[in-house]
Specification:
56% helix; single chain; globular; 29 helices
């Protein structure tokens, strides 16, 4: 490099012939942190097979849920300037997405991608962080439109930063598209409308409107709250410049219910969550962020934790047919067969066997256990098949009852049924009482819904049979359907006429109206009459028999809670480790910060910061950790001078004169920085009563 002489100081750049790379480099796919030997194991292959199918189903549901609103938005953008040119207002769409900020950006990135691929428009995604002031916002908009079209061909950026303005954008647009009969729209997406500075937002709209005669701008607001936010932020002189159209996105809770109902709570998904884990995932969604993506990632972690904990849990994957089940069982080793024998549900199963030799074979003969396992696994699949059928029947009966004692959603019923015997709950008994009060027509309508559910399960099983997949035992389902048909026919033929009792009872009821009867005698006769069976109609009896059939022959039989006492090998299909999920998926930032500051060696793993005990302080620790541990020894008010003297005592050489009051400026600067960082983290704040003190905020 040649020497550079100059009168003034400066920085000189030598490019050495280097140029920008053409195009955009594609990021390499991330490699798995698992070794190749682990990825070849059967349990991992089963996990990947199971999760890939689940992920595909989730993606299809999300695409369909976003598809309708995206199609409407694309049509709005296409028709913004087709019918007539600029009419004095900017075409603007307000997309109400709901409060789910973590998924917020992903929705608008999908929207921008769809606009680029399906419409003749240019798109710029403007976030609030890129528009903190008007100049920065305009530069982001202009750079997004111009550079998006030129980055594939140019080695360097087309415009310098001082050229990023709307005048240049207008000249570029007219030069490139002036000869076209149909010109592309310029779509600006403001993804986080609430986070923009109102004054900046107002100026952007007014300026873009002033250029709209030559630049066909289209605005899209991403609103997470409600449409009133737009009117609160934009005054009348700004809203008069836009023509606002409102688009309502599907709420995240509705999207989550669709995913749960159509993916998780299906018999064709053998992996199930216990009541505690399922409730934990729902609580994270409902009380933290309303993020469907986070729910899916937490579910994926539960999948992997279940399969990774024990290799035998790989038997719970989605299987195509019985041959696939036999193939998985034949790959089990002796140690894995012993793990199956140690399952809590295996002992009750063995104890229920009648022949002693069969008990011995199950406990000692590996070949006998391998021959029996496919049938036992298929029995668990059949258990989930009838369980989910009965669960949907219960939802059809109780979801629209007054006050919905058991809940309206399938996920609420699932938590109750998996956690324990739902038929013993007081809410269930309340629902039964409400069902007995239904009219004949209402009960027949509910029976019709139940039969449609049963028919759906049978038809899906027939479809799987035609495709050569695993076929479930539909005999119990068809049996309960036949019983419902008989009872519903009885109810349909029943009349509302009361069934009268014997004549003696009728005469006693007439004697109650005797005018010569005393008050005490009337009271005794009323009590006696109340003890006798009341007369009821044929409809009431038919409804009672129908409800009793639902409880006794469907719910008590098929909604048994999945535990070790009821279903053998159920542990292979049920993930119940809620503690691990809570530890890894629910953050505890305060505890993590305290651990990092109190014992930095826990994270840094360096030998210089090893502590004899948690209260000791070594000078090799970071300054922030030293100041933090010293502040833990203080009370509510901390004297800054005394704190700094203690800090100096720790970090200075032990041979320094203790009586020396002058402090090294470097040590003072280090202490000041540590105190500022503690204030930023929220451990201390300045005191108004004493200027040389700070107030401690955490205990």
């Amino acid at each position: 490099m040649e020497a550079t002489n100059s009168i003034s100081k400066g920085v000189f750049v030598f490019k050495n012939g280097a140029t920008h790379a053409k195009g955009v480099r594609k990021a390499k796919p991330a490699e798995s942190f698992l070794s190749s030997s682990v990825r070849r194991q059967p349990w991992y292959r089963n996990y990947r097979n199971h999760w890939d199918k689940i992920q595909t189903m989730i993606d299809e549901i999300q695409s369909s849920s976003y598809g309708k609103i995206l199609d409407d938005l694309l049509a709005f953008i296409e028709n913004s300037y087709n019918s007539q040119g600029y009419d004095g207002v900017l075409p603007t769409a307000a997309l109400l997405t709901g409060i789910n900020q973590i998924d917020h950006m992903s929705q608008f990135e999908k929207l921008a991608s769809r606009i680029r691929s399906n419409t003749f428009s240019y798109v710029v995604l403007l976030q609030s962080r890129d528009g903190s002031n008007l100049k920065q916002a305009i530069e982001t908009i202009v750079e997004g439109f111009v550079e998006e079209q030129t980055e594939e061909y140019a080695e360097e950026k087309l415009l310098r930063k001082n050229q990023l303005n709307l005048v240049v954008l207008k000249a570029w647009y007219l030069e490139k598209h002036n000869q076209m009969e149909r010109k592309p729209n310029l779509t600006v997406i403001l993804s986080d409308f609430e986070l923009f500075n109102p004054s900046v937002l107002q100026d952007i709209i007014i300026i873009l409107n002033s250029y709209a005669t030559s630049l066909p701008f289209v605005l899209i607001f991403g609103v997470a709250t409600s449409i009133t936010t737009v009117h609160n932020v934009l005054p009348y002189h700004v809203t008069s410049k836009i023509k606002l159209s409102i688009f309502q996105s599907e709420p995240s809770i509705t999207n989550l219910n669709t995913i749960i109902d159509n993916v998780l709570l299906r018999p064709y998904c053998p992996f199930h969550l216990s009541g505690r884990v399922f409730k934990l995932l729902l609580d994270i969604f409902l009380f933290y962020d309303f993020s469907v993506n986070r729910f899916v990632q937490t579910l994926k972690y539960s999948f992997f934790e279940h399969y990774f904990a024990k290799s035998i849990n790989g038997l719970s994957t989605i299987v195509g047919d019985e041959d696939e089940v036999h193939e998985m069982v034949n790959q089990l080793s002796t140690a894995e067969l012993d793990n199956i024998r140690q399952l809590p549900s295996f002992r009750p199963f063995v104890e229920s066997l009648q022949h002693p030799q069969e008990v011995v074979d199950f406990l000692t003969n590996d070949e006998h256990l391998k021959r029996s396992l496919p049938g036992m696994l298929i029995q668990v699949h059949n258990y989930w098949f009838t369980f989910h059928c009965a669960l949907e029947i219960l939802q059809a009966l109780v979801s629209d009852l007054p006050k919905a004692p058991l809940g309206k959603q399938l996920r609420e019923l699932y938590c109750l049924c998996v956690y324990g015997d739902v038929t013993e709950l007081p809410e269930f008994k309340e629902c039964i009482q409400l069902l007995l009060f239904l009219s004949k027509e209402e009960m027949l309508q509910k029976v019709k819904k139940v039969l449609e559910i049963v028919l759906t399960y049978v038809s899906n099983n027939d479809r799987l049979s035609m495709e050569g997949c695993l076929v479930y035992d539909v005999g119990p389902v068809e049996q309960l359907a036949n019983g419902l048909v008989v009872l519903s026919d009885e109810l349909d033929a029943a009349r509302h006429e009361y069934i009268l009792g014997n004549r003696q009872q009728d005469q006693q009821q007439q004697q109650l109206l005797s005018p010569s009867m005393g008050r005490q005698e009337l009271r005794e006769k009323l009590l006696t009459a109340a003890r006798h069976a009341k007369s009821e109609s044929e409809v009431t009896r038919a409804v009672g028999r129908l409800v009793d059939y639902f409880v006794r022959d469907i719910f008590q039989r098929y909604l048994r809670p999945p535990n070790s006492r009821t279903v053998p090998l159920i542990e292979l299909f049920l993930f119940s480790d809620s503690t691990t999920v809570r530890h890894h998926m629910v953050g505890t930032p305060r505890a993590a910060i305290h651990t990092a500051l109190n014992n930095p060696q826990y994270y840094t793993q360096c030998e210089c910061c090893v502590l004899d005990n948690e209260y000791s302080i070594v000078p090799t620790m970071p300054d922030l950790s030293i100041a933090y541990k010293l502040h833990l020894e203080c009370g509510r008010m901390i004297n800054l001078f005394d704190w700094m003297q203690a800090f100096r005592t720790v970090v200075e050489d032990n041979q320094a004169d203790e009586g020396e009051r002058s402090i090294d400026p470097k040590i003072q600067a280090r202490f000041t920085r540590a105190v500022t960082e503690l204030q930023f983290l929220g451990f201390i704040k300045t005191s108004k009563r004493k200027t040389d003190h700070v107030t401690r905020l955490t205990w």
